[in-house]
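User: I'm curious what two different proteins look like when written out as structure tokens. Can you demonstrate?

Assistant: Sure. I'll show them one after the other, since each token string lines up with its own sequence. Here's the first protein:
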Amino acid sequence: MTGCNGGDGSERGGAKPAAFSGEYPMRIVATTGMVADIARQVAGEKGTVAALMGPGSDPHVHKPTRDDVQALTNADVIFYSGLNLEGRMGDTFARFGRTGKPVYAVTEKLDESKLREPPEFDGHYDPHVWMDVKLWSECAGFVAEALAEFDPPNAERYRRNAADYRAELDQLDAYVKEAIASVPEEHRVLVTSHDAFGYLGRAYGIEVNAVQGITTEAEAGLADVNELVGFIIQRKVPAIFVESSVSPKNIEHVRQACRAGGWEVRLGGELFSDAMGAEGTYEGTYIGMIDHNATTVARALGGTAPARGMQGKLAPR
């Protein structure tokens, strides 16, 4: 384990991190809410976790602020998602890694054969791994090993915490499969603002289309929008979805174009893609985020998922 993997997915040279010798709880800084949630579950009472990017944040375009740099400087351990998700922060991670601070991309040990490499992403992997619960669960195991290496006296604690959390994720994975399977086969089509749901589509058997590409920095061309509108009308897709971290304007444009073409497509709801829900809510946890997405998609497309989700904890809608 090298301790630093650059934002572009390549190894960066750096001093080997020394074992933790400070006072508990250790200070852990993560980039996105999803990464922070893994770290929080695995570290337990031995660490406090702060996320740099809150609800509604878009990691594709996030540039490190002065406060971010200060938080990273004060951190004992840094975790980020990797696979170029936080592309504009790559140099920052590499700089901290070279100082000997432990900096880990939680996706860095994933088997590359399990990663999506869509042709439109020009040789890069799709970074939205958390949409496949089984794959994201592997990242929890990696976080446990990273903390075990950094804090050997508590290694078994971290491994136990990760095992307990991964058991919960197994239940979540089963629920998502059941929810999506409840949608009539001809309606298993997910149309969203940007292509963040490819792993969900592959893992749970639903066709995915989007206005924008994998990164929100990619502009949607008129031809792409027209092609998507034609697809929705032809397939009689009942509902399309906006995302919490992406402007709804493109989806609204698609709806208007479908209406002009003679097909009234509903707005199925708002999904969490690159950020979780509000802090302190069930949807502000990784499990709640995915529960919300699966439940919202299934019900909007004609499935039979329970209104309050897997655990009855979703906010009333």
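Here's a second, unrelated protein for contrast:
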Amino acid sequence: MLLRVAWRNVWRNKARSMVIVIAVALGLWGGIFSDAFMQGMSQQLVHSVIYTQTGNIQLNQPGFLVNHDMALTIPNTDSIVTQVENIPGVAGAATDIQIAAMASTASGSAGIMINGINPGEYVKVNELNKMLTEGDYFKDSRANQIVIGQQLADKLKVKLHSRIVVTLQTTAGNIVYGAFRITGIYSTSSTDFDGQTVYVRDDDIRTLVNYLPGQASIITVLLHNNDDTKKVTDAIRGAYPNLQVQPWMELSPLLQMVTGTVQQTAYIFVGIILIALAFGIINTMLMAVLDRTHEIGMLLSIGMKPRLIFSMFMLETVFLSLTGAAAGMAVSIGSIYWFGQKGINLSVVAQGINAFGYSSVVYPTLGVDFYADLALMVFVIAMIAGVFPARRAIRLKPAEAVRGD
């Protein structure tokens, strides 16, 4: 009975109630959509790093990533790759020969990181083949092909089919030169990565630096599900205790910090919005108490217990808040779904955000658990906001309230 009365009381003054419902709905929609936007950027950044740079897990010799020492190679990589791919949850594994070098053309030079790969195997752990803007991904068997980033191509003033001379050391410490022809140009969401990372066939780089067959610098592992990263990492560490096995969180600690910070910021941002809206709710409910002073006095005079009046105003506050929250969530779900499919194009500021590794097209996304947490937050804020007006109502003196004083 009290629930029904409280719900009807909410709509006794429809204009006033609708104002606060719309305010709550718009405030929550703005907060939720902003959080979905940040979450979308964060998840795309993680996806980009995993599928273009680190994979979910990497294996290498301890100390290799400090200075890319060519002596720290992994032998017998073929058998390791086969065994790793048999671990449950692993989608694929591939080898990579990483060597720091210098790229030169008639227009200039730049420091680069050469990645010697087996093109057929590498597609299992990397989406480079999907990111080409010009040319092809090692389409034929010609020797000394190279695929470079758009940023590097602009810096060296080269284009498709241009020749690049790379300078690097052999395993014996001698300086060698290699001439490569550009057969592909790629573009990722990170301009820094595009400006220094190139790809060649592993056989071509082995010939230059005298690596033995089966030797590689890194083994990259891609998983079916990113949530399995810790479990698979532990399994690989147990199988290969002499190798350094690192998940992407250790390879890119800054990225992990960014993703964690985004989640915390999302709750803080929505919490601030709810606190601001709480003052509007308190004001609305105080107006309701003032408008119904005579009615409250009558109820107290005929013996209605103060706790029931207190409960009635608390329920009205909760109903008012949850109605606005439900409307805001419904609108946010629809808008997030729409823009999650179509994307939000930020090409106007692409150069700036690409420098930080973010994509210029953002697809907002938000987990179901966030909505559950948000509903709880709204309920708690509503309960807090309803206490003061409800206390004000039960502290009225019946005789004075009936006279309207």
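A detail about the second structure: The longest strand covers residues 90-105.
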